[in-house]
Amino acid sequence: MSGLLMWLLCWSVELQVRRPLMPVQLSPEQVGLEMLCLCGQLDLLIRAQMQQFQEQLGQGCSPEEEDTFQAQGSEILDQMLQCLEHLPKPMPQLEDYLDMVGLSVMFPRVEVFLIQGSPVDMLESPAMDEYFSHVARLNQLLVLSQQLEEDIRHLGSHRYIAHQLSVIYQVVSSFRGIQAFSEMKKDIEANFKQVKRSLAAEEGARHEPQLAAHYVTWILELTEGLTTVVLALPEELTEDMEQAVTFVSQFLS
Questions:
Q1: Which of 4, 59, 182, 230 sits at a 20 to 30 Å CA gap from 21?
Q2: According to the UniProt entry, where is the signal peptide (predicted)?
Q3: Nearest to 139 by CA among 40, 241, 42, 43
């Protein structure tokens, strides 16, 4: 009897594992935003599989899908279909919905996967390919700036401040043609050697290396400026996010 009960419990958990414990009704706007996220997940999954195909070919092997690829892809597609259930009846077909809201244009790999059931890369990289790396760099810059500000204020040692500045400089340099970042890049270039030299001069001293007050003030102004620019998202920072921003705007207007 206990074995049967355990089987029933396991079966129930498996059946409901991808659904919320309590019913949640999504608005059409929420469905659109959720579908954007799911398309992004599926697109990244396909790109990862295509990258593996390239590596296999480079090693002289025939391309083979990861064992988990189809399972993960099917799981995301199932979540998409669950989302569509929240739309007014009659529920549209998945392909029709993606066409209607513009997601098939944003994620052509996803559209091809729906048709063929297998991962296929594009001859030309879709514009959304730049979106994820761009957002990742913005997030990296924000986190690094906030961490440096926290460290310069509260750490008893400034031993690694120069290294942190160097990492921030590399991320800032990856944003080409952004005027606000160009000025900050020059600012780091103008002060970095002095900061590094100041910390090196205290190496071997009994106390932990500490920056002079004017360097601390400069770094705080720098990190505040970087954080402000990233959070403000000026137009020049959103060019690589244009498709996503336009898509989201239609559901938030």
A1: 4
A2: 1-15
A3: 241
d(CA 53, CA 63): 5
Does residue 53 register a pLDDT over 70? Answer: yes
DSSP assignment of 36-88 equals: HHHHHHHHHHHHHHHHHHHHHHHTT------TTHHHHHHHHHHHHHHHHTTSS
Confidence class of residue 205 from pLDDT cuts 50, 70 and 90?
A: low
* Two tokens, residue 49: 């599989």
Average confidence score pLDDT of the chain: 86
The one-letter amino acid at 220: L
Distance CA 241, CA 149 (A): 27
The pair phi, psi for residue 38, each rounded to 5°, is -70, -40
- Whose structure tokens read 């900050």? 184
State pTM to two decimals. Answer: 0.72
**Amino acid occupying residue 17:** V
Domain extents in the chain = 25-116, 129-240
* pLDDT tens digits for range 165-200: 999 999 999 998 888 899 999 999 999 999 998 888
Instruction: Write down the number of H helices and E strands in the chain.
Output: 11, 0
Three-state DSSP class for 22? coil
Residue 19 or 243, more confident: 243
Phi, psi of 167 (to 5 degrees): -65, -45
Concatenating the DSSP letter of every residue in 88-126 gives: SSSPPPHHHHHHHHTHHHH-HHHHHHHHHSS----SS--
Q: How many CA atoms lie within 13 A of 237 on its CB side?
A: 19
Nearest to 237 by CA among 140, 145, 134, 141: 134
